[in-house]
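User: Some background: our group keeps a shared notebook of sequences we're curious about, and every so often someone picks one and asks for a predicted structure to add to the entry. Today it's my turn. The entry only has the sequence so far, pasted here. Could you supply the structure so I can complete it?
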Amino acid sequence: MSEPILPPLKPIPIKDRISVLFVEKGNLDVLDGAFVLVDKNGVRTHIPVGGVACLMLEPGIRVSHMAVMLASRVGCLLVWVGEAGVRLYASGQPGGARADRLLYQAKLALDDDARLKVVRKMYSLRFKEEAPERRSVQQLRGIEGVRVRKMYELLARQYNVSWKHRNYDYNEWESGDIPNRCLSSATACLYGICEAAILAAGYAPAIGFIHTGKPQSFVYDIADLFKFETVVPIAFRIAAKKPLNAERDVRLACREVFRQSRLLHRIIPTIEEVLAAGGLKMPETPGESVEPAIPNKEGIGDAGHRG
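Assistant: Of course. Here's the predicted structure to add to the notebook entry:
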């Protein structure tokens, strides 16, 4: 039986989407043309997958081939996470990185001078001041770590939260204290939409500049530029209340702050600004290069026109 011939889709730009949704305990499928979550009682919940940047799949989720195919076609990133988003296990790449952008990113990361310039730009954007002169990447990483620990302590005092240090065990989620669990859930939300934006722009999540050696190194780099103005204060504010379901409250609050701050409008321009600081020219686009995962094609009007 051949696959149905579907008309070409016109994906919604990343900046106009819902940031992130978490789903658990059900089957993701495409039924009667709709992307749905079916629970154990057969109840369908429609998910507007084309308008979501990142779908977080928690334990208890099964995904059909058709659901993965549709998510890929509309550019929705699927991320398999642990309970409450404690751990990111894997992700499905919507459209893939472009060769010219990937080579540009890799060239910057492999050039010591260019990499240092990119790291210094990240430092200045994050802390609103220029990085100290004559410091290596490793030294700036150390300075950053000290400042981050101090910022955690200041926020803990501000929200009257008992705080020792950043500590959590992937394998023993419940063993962590409430502030650390809230922070893990909050940063997982941020990592999801940052990875979706990185992939949509044609870059590689694994090629980082401050963080290295992990599948989401560049995701951590970019997320760090926004975390203390968005998700970290939320985590401490909710931890101070000690709710029964802190992780759920954190996720809902993060989604709201992403919307209010229009974060998805800012991530890709920030990526371009950071990489441009390296001072290297982007390679010419090869003739056989694939298009961006979510191309911005010219239409007959503004963004409200889908024709």
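Suggested note for the entry: The radius of gyration is 20 Å. The chain has two domains: 14-92, 99-276.
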